[in-house]
Description:
Number of strands: 0
Helix content: 40-55%
Largest sheet: none
Structural class: mainly alpha
Low-confidence stretches: none
Shape: elongated
Distance between the termini: 52 Å
Number of helices: 3
Order of helices and strands: HHH
Amino acid sequence: MPRTNYEAKINLPKDLTNPLGLFTLFYPFEYMEIFVWSTNQYAEKKIKLELKKNTSLPNYNRYLDWKSLTIKETYVFLKILILINSNRRPKIKDY
């Protein structure tokens, strides 16, 4: 049976000129909002649970340092993960 060749069609926006634009095609802002909201909700529940178990948390407890995550911080974190995985270095401080 003869093989049929198909021409690939790329369906990307014409104004896509930067890496962030490409990234947001896969992770739209709405997804980041949900991710950040869910992460903050989870942290809040964990902190309340920890306070119920132990009403006097020590000063060095990591729950006391929690600050709500922002969308900007999430994008920065994901960019760092992509950079680390696409450009391997011997030591973490090399990044």
